[in-house]
Amino acid sequence: MYSIPLFLYTGPEFGERNDAVAELRRQAEKKFGSIDYHQLYTMDVSFGDVLSLLRNGNLFVPARFVVLRGVESIKKKDDIDLLAKWCDEMKKTQADDVWFVLVSDETSVEKKVEGLVPKEHRKIFWELFEDRKEKWLESFFYKNGYKLTPDAVALILSLVENNTEALRNECSRFFVCFEKDHIIDSDDVEAVLAHNREESAFTLFDAMADASHGEGVRLSDSLSVLQKLRNSKDSASVQIIAGLTWCFRRLKVWHTLAREGGMSDFNLKTNGFQSKKMQQKYRMAAQIWSLKDTESAIALLSDMDMFIRSSGSGVDSVSMQTLVYCLCIKKGAPLCKFEIS
Questions:
Q1: Which residues contact 106 (CB under 8 A, 6 or more apart)?
Q2: Which residues have CB under 8 Å from 145's CB, separation 6+?
Q3: CA 107, CA 119: separation in Å to the nearest integer?
Q4: 60: Cβ–Cβ under 8 A, 6 or more apart, which residues?
Q5: CA–CA distance, 165 with 256 (Å, rounded to integer)
Q6: Three-state DSSP class for residue 157
């Protein structure tokens, strides 16, 4: 029985989610030998152009494979109607030479979009529970010829972002630092990860969300992290904003759970707050930004993203410093005209 070649992969477990997309791509390449592959972002392309690419593709390649990320932003009726029309076309032609994969960091998207995707092609990739994360980590090291002590496992999980994509990237460093069969302990982890840890949008959020410090210290620490980050290879402002937006969206989920009385261990874990470290981070962040502040911060980040994209790199430095100031001191509110002057 024919099933529309439309897939929806959502959720915060980036590693397993990206593996699933890669597996689909392997299946397509195995079937056709070569494919016309594209990875696009909703913020960078119109939905009509995406569907045009799916329909027309490359005349010299037998199959098309398009991954569209950030699909939680697809809400306009016109875009949804375009997707519905494309699905109808697929049903009529029963084409088997095209794949369209919708991806989102969120756990849900617009219901009308979700409804167009066959049930068997939808999957939510939840963050791993602590026991599964530990087993995944031990297995990852074992497959590469290494073993971990229990305290090394605990320390790695406390230092690295809560998904297997980040774990895989960070832990690959060990394989160039030690000979195979080495048993990695907490001292090794401290040397490789803690002392050589690169800054990211997530460590920037950590600095801003450290409720143990006053706003002045948090601002100073955050600007220091921002400077290090901008001096690194991961200095693109839009990437930093995207990471911060993800963190503030998670904070909004935290506030919503708290308001609705859903702060049980089960609710926290099923909503992406498995680890105690993650829970503590957002518990502190909630002390700084209320739900209203969080919504203001998300709006501010969106506005800054559009401003930087339209203004060019010349305004990046001042704009990002202003953004950090507004998030730390003004709790997400934009600068007033008299403050700018």
A1: 10, 11, 72, 249
A2: 175, 180, 181
A3: 15
A4: none
A5: 27
A6: helix
- Strands 122-124 and 147-148 come out as unpaired
Residue 234 reports pLDDT greater than 60:
no
* pLDDT at site 92: 93
Cβ partners under 8 Å of residue 279, min gap 6:
268, 273
Return the percentage of the chain with pLDDT > 90, whole number.
Answer: 52
pLDDT in tens, 291-322: 999 999 999 999 998 888 877 656 788 899 99
Alpha-carbon torsion 36, 37, 39, 42, what sign?
positive
Q: 0.90 cut: is pTM over it?
A: no
DSSP helix/strand/coil, 169: helix
Dist CA 327 CA 316 (whole Å): 16
* 87, 116 Cβ separation under 8 angstroms: yes
Mean pLDDT of all residues in 221-232:
87
Both tokens assigned to 104:
């989102």
- What six digits make up the tokens of 220? 């100073």
Question: Is 204 within 8 Å of 176 (Cβ atoms)?
Answer: no
To the nearest whole number, what is the mean pLDDT of the chain? 87
Is 76's pLDDT higher than 70?
A: yes
- As a residue count, the chain comes to 341
CA distance 47 to 51: 6
